[in-house]
Amino acid sequence: MKKGLLIFSIFLCINSIAQTKTTGNVVEYFGKEKIITTAEGNVLYHFINGYTLQTESRTGTLFNGQDPIAWQYAVGKFVNPNKEKGNWQEIEADSAKVFSGKPMRSGFLYTEYNASKEQIVLLETTGGTRTYINGQPHEGDHYDFGYTLVPFKLRKGVNEFIYTKGRFGRVKSKIIVPSKSIQFTKRDLTLPDVINGEKDEKWASIRVINATEKDLKNLVITATLSGGEKATYATDAIMPLFVRKVKFKVPAAKADFTGELKMNLTLSDKSGKVIDKIEITIQQRAATVHHERTFVSKVDNSVQYYSVAPALGAGPKALVLSVHGASVEARNQARAYKQKDWVHIVAATNRRPFGFNWEDWGRIDALEVLAEAKKVFNTIPNQTYLTGHSMGGHGTWFLGTTYPGKFAAIAPCASYPDISMYGSDKGDEMHDMFKAFEPIKRSANSGRVKSLVQNLKQGGVYMLHGDADSTVPISQVREMRQILGTFHPNFCYYEYPGGEHWYGDHSVDWFPIFEFFKRQTIPTNKEVKEIDFHTATPAVSSTDYWIKLQQQIRPFDFSTINAKIDKQQINIKTVNVSVMELDLVSLELKGEITLNIDDQLLKTTSDKKAILNLKDGKWVLINEINTAEKYAERQGGFKFAFDNNVVFVYATGGSASERDWYLNRARFDAETFYYRGNGSIDVISDKEFSLEKYKDRNVVIYGNAVNNSAWNLLLKNAPVQIDNQQIKVGDKVLKGADLAAYFVVPRKDSKTAMVGVVAGTSEKGMKATWANNYISGITGFPDVMIFKADLLLNGLPDMKVSGFFDNEWSAKTLEFFN
Question: Which residues form the signal peptide (predicted)?
């Protein structure tokens, strides 16, 4: 989490090791026979020798899209280190075949394998943020999960592998010949508990390896419990050379039981032919003890889980949402809490133990779990609370300030308010000198907790922090105590004497927090007479009790709405507000209402919503929201394309290199979203796409108007047009073979769906789209970014266009840079 302004990058070059001879499961290294297998096949090759070369690079938090190796591949300047040794220094892996040590924390690892024939294999990697296989990017394993299996075609002759810096300073890599071209893998299951007495089938997911060059469709998974109970589900399609985590159903158990159950899974085609079988273990429990539940996310139709510490006894109960710290599983978070007699405690996952810092898709996961738990447990609506530890302490501040009215009280523990300001370099100060950074920074404003903290005014706050915490300095929470002291009437603060970052389960299961929660309830709309609402964008946070922001004057800049009810008059002051709503019906006022908004008087009635629109400096009442413009449900910010059951559509036109790149580029994003967000995204070709089949779903297009046939269906009249020679932005034209773009626009045939684009001009341009740092919970991405391939080396000086479309989705407000 801590970053320095300058990081030394190390390139590690690995020579081919001694000739390897494979016969069945026997692999011979240096004349000594060893049986080396994995669950998925036989190990063909390990990498153990190499070289290092030091260089400098710059990084950041909100913007970090530079990579010298990506640049070399994009502009055709990469040279195999074995051919040009230069200043490379030798290095060897340790006895466990792991490359480790300080240089690996910020380095690149080069390996190569000289293959005697062409075949489809798997690359298994631990450590390393990303991997290039023969110049094509793939997701790595920088958290050392051990999940990474990348199917690829090994070409005859030299094959190049480069692994970018690893979080923990170690990389291990090997090539596996799969035992089957299509098979299950047990790595990274998402499973519910079978709950005694519950008769419904539960969602689960398992990864299926497609080590073929064909799409896998019409697959069926049958799950059979040891008692004979069976559930069958027609599961998700899998793109070529991909490992997808696909859905299946777990049957309900006929008899009550506590403990492990064996469950057999069968993968079949539509004719019933069995492709693979596997046995896994699942837990059966009573609903009255700690347990795990699953649901299907609206983001990508994937299966996610949450963990529960259920309330003791029957009857209506309150609900606490607990958000975990970095590297913590939700199941462990929930088990840190003893069961209470008055409240259910549910722990969301953030989609992964590290996940998205509870921002972006982590934020969505928290909201989805909250809604799911309310439905499953039928909790008392006005007794909903929020707490969390460490990264989850940040999540508590962030979610609490972002969603006023959802929680009666919050309790951040061992917390920091703002991740961009947590660390040695304080985020992105290095980029502030560049004008192009302003839209990037602004697009991440929704995470600036201290700018939103006034939203906590209606609810209680309890802050808990160990006074000896060396991981999150206590200065972080003391600052929040000072800020709250200037306006907040209902908060408590406690420094645990001698408490380090974690000092036992009472670091979160703290009796005074739950006693404080008991005294708090969410007021009804009619009880809230005064609102001071702050938000960075209605795309993330639009509502504060009876006020809803629909549109801003300046997207992703901070907006405020101060409103106070005085009998039959509502006095309102606004900053950066273009369209807003007042839910007057919920206030239960009678008769005519006077609205005094920015010193302008308007009359309306109390029996309907009041929708206010600022036009030419004057407020007017309008009848409905214009959904063709930006509004709360569709605002922009490129990252928002990756939501709403998104589908990736890759180009099949153009040259062979274009087809290969865009196919792999979509695959790379799907791999990354899987790894970082437990995701499972539909990836299809442009030939398969139709407006009706994928109606009202978000779409991300990989390719331009020349090579992706879906462009004409979705983007024919978009304000940004891209072909192989130029990018047209409104009435301006940028020419060049090395231009790349990310942008998002509304889907014209839908009121809510969006279209994102990852595209470039010719080969240099398309390869400049290497970076997918938008699949991150911290980075900033405005509506549009257009840049030269040299940005991968030089950073922001090579940004050509960035910014936000105006509220009519035109390019008039975008900024151009020389």
Answer: 1-18
385 residue type, one letter: Y
pLDDT at 56 over 80: no
Phi and psi at 543, nearest 5°, equal -130, 135
Maximum CA extent, the chain: 93
Which residues have a Cβ under 8 Å from the Cβ of 364 and sit 6 or more positions away? 297, 298, 299, 643
Q: How far apart are CA 289 and CA 287, in angstroms?
A: 6
DSSP element (H, E) containing 657: helix 656-677
Which residue in the block uniquely carries the two structure tokens 């007495």?
Answer: 197
pLDDT at position 423, please?
60
Q: Would you state the structure tokens that stand for residue 354, as one six-digit string?
A: 């590290």
Q: Are 703 and 663 in contact (CB under 8 A)?
A: no
User: Is the per-residue pLDDT at 84 higher than 90?
Assistant: no
The type of residue at 755 is V
Averaged pLDDT, 203-210: 98
Q: What is the DSSP string of 331-370?
A: HHHHHTS---SSEEEEE--TTSSSTTTTSTHHHHHHHHHH
Residue type at 135 in one-letter notation? G
Query: So where are the chain's domains?
Result: 6-178, 183-511, 525-551+556-622, 638-816
Residue 256 contacts by C-beta under 8 Å, 6 or more apart in sequence?
196, 197, 286
Which tokens in the block code for residue 243? Answer: 């490992």
Q: Which residue's entry shows tokens 């062979």? A: 656
Question: Are the beta carbons of 320 and 386 closer than 8 angstroms?
Answer: yes
What percent of the residues of the chain are helix, what percent strand, and what percent coil, each to the nearest 5? 20, 40, 45
Kindly calculate the radius of gyration of the chain based on its CA atoms and give it in whole angstroms. Answer: 27
User: What would the two tokens of residue 235 be?
Assistant: 């599961």
Domain 638-816 has CATH 3.30.110: no
Encode pLDDT of 431-464 as tens digits: 889 999 999 999 999 999 999 999 999 999 999 9
Q: Could you tell me if 274 and 267 are in contact, meaning their C-beta atoms sit under 8 angstroms apart?
A: yes
φ, ψ (nearest 5 deg) of residue 456: -80, 0
Q: Decide: 153 and 191 in contact? Cβ < 8 Å.
A: no
The whole-model pTM stands at 0.94
Number of residues assigned to the chain: 818
Residue 15 to residues 19, 112, 133, 160, 274: CA-CA distances in angstroms?
A: 12, 7, 16, 11, 42
326-354 exposure pattern, b = at least 16 Cβ within 10 A, e = fewer:
bebbbbebbebbebbebbbbbbbbbbbbb
Please count the CA atoms within 13 angstroms of the CA of 12 that sit on its side-chain side.
Answer: 34
| Distance (Å, whole) CA 397 – CA 480 | 10
What residues have CB less than 8 Å from 420, skipping those under 6 apart? 61, 62, 427, 428, 444, 447, 448, 778
CA-to-CA distance for 175 and 20, rounded, in angstroms?
Answer: 12
The CB-side HSE value for 474 (13 A sphere, CA atoms) comes to 15
| Percentage with pLDDT > 70 across the chain | 93
Tokens of 727: 């990018």
681 has pLDDT over 70 = yes
What is the CATH architecture of 183-511?
Answer: 3-Layer(aba) Sandwich (3.40)
